[in-house]
Amino acid sequence: MECRDSTAAVTGRRDLVERDAALTALRASLTDAVGGKGRLVVVEGPLGSGKSRLLHEFLETLEPGAARVLRATASLREEALPFGVLTQLSHGLAIPPARRETFRALLAAAVEHALLHGGTAPGSQDAADPRIADAFQKLTVELAHLAENTPLVICVDNAHYVDAPSLHFLAGVVAWLHSTRILVLVTDDPTMRRPRSPLLGGLAPSPHVRRVPVAPLSRASVHSLATRLLGPHTATPRLTADLYAVSGGNPLAVRALIVDQQAGGTGHPEGYGQALLDLVAHARPPIPAVVRSLAVLGGAPEPADVAPLAGQDTKTTRWALRALADAGMLSAHAPVPSAHAGLPGDGAMVPAAQVAAPARAERYAFRHPAGAAAVLDDLPAADRTALHHTAAELLRDNGASALTVARQLTSAGDAGIDDGIDILLTASQEALAAGDVGTALGCLGLARRTRTDGTTAAHVRTRLSRLERQLKPQAAVRHLRPQLDDFHAGRLDRRGVSDLVLGLADTGALHDLTALLDVLRTRYRQDTGPGPGTEDIRSLTSWAAMAYPLHTGLRRLAHSVAAATPAAVPCHDPWLPSAVALSDDYVDGRDDQLVQRAELLLSTYHLDHDSLWNVESGVLALRGLCHAGRLDEVVAWCEKLEAETAAHHAVASQARFLAVRVEAHLRRGDLTRARDLAAHALSLVPPQGWGVGLAGVLACAILAATRSGDLVAAEKYVALPLPEHALHSRHGAAYLHARGHFRLATHHPQAALADFLACGRFAETWGRPGADVVPWRLSAAEAWLAQNDQEQAKRLVREQLARLLPGPSRERGQSLRTLAAVSRVTRRPQLLTEAVDMLKESGDDYELTRALIDLSAAFHDAGDQRNARRVAHRAWHLAKQTGTQHLCRKAALDPAGSEAAPAADAEERPDGVSSLTRQERKIAALASKGYTNREIAAKLYITASTVEQHLTRVFRKVNVKRRQDLPYLL
């Protein structure tokens, strides 16, 4: 009849869902109007719920010529324009020309009278004027005549924004509906409507009035719409759940999100922000101000917190937030009543249930950060900055934390409020205490950009440098020169001075470091005791001298200061004396005391981002345990601290702990792991960010690559330039030792010897008893052997053995292996057997592999081929395990048999190996390395008979007869 049938018309629109019932109600109302029973249909719903779209779709279903349609759209911008909507209706093409002229003449007379008699002001009672009321009645009669032959549909979109005279006219039309063929369709948002609307305010239920509610879409409808528009493969349950969560079911937001998904599928929440801006642009004035304030404050504040910033009272603010929550654009963090009470003010009646709701029960937030970002990006820069400043002042005056206030200042990019610098400094401390290093850095960065006095600027610069040294050390170098100027001007406090000493030492600025410490010594003497900045003079000079053992000036300065200052003074930073004491124990060779002190420090150790000496002392403690052979503990500690520093984005600290772990893996012969971790450490912090510490991490990287046979990678590391004076630092010996081994591996024994002898100068300067920092004598002996000078090699090996402390050790095992190379053939098997036993206990698989290869060769030279093959087999498996392919080749006495056969055996028995229990695998792994049953029993705290039983089952599972045949995979 008057509508196209319908199901096709309704469902033919792929992006219209959950509106079938509403369309059915509109068609039924049109049918009533056609039968002479006019109707007023009010389609009502919150912002963006699809009311206008519903009217458009309904009108699209009308058969051509089935009804005359007059349409008008009200807007907030034209709400104060008298007769605006009525004028739009009068220009409708559905009015025949003859009646159109009459209609316009009556309307013009009413407008003219209103203008002459002041009846156009908003809220004026136009209908009370007899002349206007008479004109409205005649216009209504004209519409009734117009509907006699063809039903008339009057559509008014956004009735909540219709001007007052037009509302009075429409109210008059409604009064005639019961006897006309007129259908009046209006869309209404009760939250946006002015109070006491002549058309809709207090509209009583009656047979000719029908309300059609339109709500946000359900989760199921969002899924259905996404499936229609994106396809079932893209519209997964997870995606549609995200769409619903972000949009709140608001049709406008849902469609915007789907369009974004169709465009690229990566930034779909941004559609929510654009939809929010579109809705706010068409909302009443309090709503934009409230939304901007909510975006500035962030989080989920209460209406009472938003109101002052928005310049509104709490009741109006609550209304605005509820209106957007009803529309699905905000999330309400507690159940709240509906906002359909109308706009507060102007005599609006708000239900008591809404007003009485406790303010603390209501909190509102954007459904996605893209909403707040869109609102803020839409603001002019000056307005946005002003809002953030106002928010900061309000928060400060209300007693908010410094960190909360500082977030507003950093968002503004300007600390332009009273006490702004103090707030930022306090906030950085609060952020550090909470582990939020990034926020602390942002606060200090803003404080540095703010003009202030010299002392405050120096304090800010010190704290900023301290944090940047941990997060981006390559950028922190720029602070050193200004900090030196601050020091000489007397603006640095005690902590600033100690930070500057550490910074200068790390970058290798030895001239500036020595001059600074000399000035401190002079100030100390002038003040006849500790004064500002000189309190830690003894600790700082002692640490600096140990950091650069070859620097004569620093050593003399340290001795001079030590003679003139007390041994201990109260320290502002507990980590500084720990770092000094650990360095002192290490250099003086007090190994037992070093281990005890390291254990004590680590027992209470925690990351402290407010101290640069925290990481320094932690690294020194871990290196102490590393040199004591406590490698498993070191690895466990490093992994824990790396995870903590990574969580705080403190990449410099993370890289330093990672470098210690590299050294631990290198010491136990795990070359593959050491090589990979060294590369990772150098990727975390670029070479220019390491300072002189680059020599230390490169030493491990070069040695790991050289020992594993990857000389190409080692050459690349050697080619990296070192900072000035890096070789004079405590890392210099390790770097020279590693470079020497690279040169030895690349057949440059003379250059290698020069590097090893240079390491000896470190040892002579330090005068460290016991084992040296690096085994330079043994390395130099290898270089002499490469030049066929056995006498020089023998001399160095004997010197090394004479310096060792009594008892078995890793160093003694290395020394015996090298001694065997310069001893008689008949004595070599005995020396190498002792070396193997000691190296096996030390856990250094690389050195053990080398000793086994030498022992196999010694047996071979002595004519004991059976033992030679047995030991070679063990060496081959161990070399395979450590990732040293070149040692595998060296261990293979018969390249066609001994090397290939074990690998084949391992691949033929994967099922047998995988069937081993955890305990069997442990025992088999130790047995494959050459441990006896008693040694295995002692290590695993079980009996020797239990070990024997386990090995019997292992042999059966992997199909071997001897422990020497156990596959290297174990």
**Uncertain stretches:** 4-12, 120-126, 335-360, 894-910
Note the gap between the termini. Answer: 85 Å
Q: If strands are numbered along the chain, what order do they take across the biggest sheet?
A: 2-3-4-1-5
Query: Beta-strand percentage?
Result: under 5%
Mean pLDDT: 83
Structural class determined from secondary elements: mainly alpha
What is the general shape? elongated
Give the count of helical stretches.
49
The biggest sheet, with number of strands, parallel, antiparallel or mixed sense and barrel status, is: 5 strands, parallel
Q: From the alpha-carbon coordinates, what is the Rg to the nearest angstrom?
A: 42 Å
User: What level of helicity do the residues show?
Assistant: 55-70%
Question: Can you count the beta strands?
Answer: 7
Structure overview:
This protein is mainly α. The chain is 63% helix and 4% strand. The chain contains 49 helices and seven strands. A five-stranded parallel sheet has the order 2-3-4-1-5, with helices on both faces. Helix 8 (219-230) packs parallel to helix 10 and helix 10 crosses helix 11 (269-281). The termini are far apart. Residues 4-12, 120-126, 335-360 and 894-910 have low confidence and may be disordered.
Helix and strand arrangement:
Layout: H1 6-11, H2 20-34, E1 39-44, H3 51-60, E2 68-73, H4 84-90, H5 97-116, H6 130-146, E3 152-157, H7 164-175, E4 182-188, E5 209-213, H8 219-230, H9 237-247, H10 251-263, H11 269-281, H12 286-297, H13 303-310, H14 314-326, E6 330-332, H15 352-355, E7 364-366, H16 369-377, H17 381-397, H18 402-412, H19 420-433, H20 437-449, H21 454-471, H22 473-476, H23 480-488, H24 494-507, H25 510-526, H26 537-547, H27 552-564, H28 575-588, H29 591-603, H30 612-627, H31 631-647, H32 651-667, H33 671-684, H34 694-707, H35 711-719, H36 732-745, H37 749-766, H38 776-786, H39 790-803, H40 810-821, H41 828-842, H42 845-861, H43 865-882, H44 885-891, H45 900-908, H46 910-914, H47 918-928, H48 933-940, H49 944-958
Parallel strand pairs: 1-4, 1-5, 2-3, 3-4
Antiparallel strand pairs: 6-7
